[in-house]
Design a protein that fits this description.
Length: 96
């Protein structure tokens, strides 16, 4: 395997994992009583919270609804499609 292929595979795994974590984070916003420092939930909260904090300062909750996880999910999904999708930049660069 070439380095470019491994990098593409790793980037795809990272972007997919972050998208999945933000989907779980969106579901967690439906349950405000959930403690984010408890064991199973902290595996979702710890990787996503550093990205959510700065965006929450810029965009506070609207009507009590935190939409920042939705925005980050959209960003990671867009990046994955632009870079690794069927017509993505990295996909087109690596095809012979």
């Amino acid at each position: 395997m070439t380095t470019a292929l491994l990098t593409t595979w790793g980037l795809g795994l990272f972007l997919g994992l972050m998208s999945l974590l933000f989907i779980a984070r969106i579901v967690l916003t439906w349950y405000p009583q959930v403690e984010l420092n408890q064991f199973p939930v902290c595996l979702i909260a710890w990787p996503t919270e550093p990205l959510l904090i700065p965006l929450r300062k810029w965009l506070p909750p609207l009507g009590g609804v935190d939409i920042t996880p939705i925005i980050w999910f959209g960003i990671f999904s867009l990046l994955r499609e632009l870079l690794l999708g069927q017509q993505g930049l990295l996909t087109l660069l690596l095809t012979p």
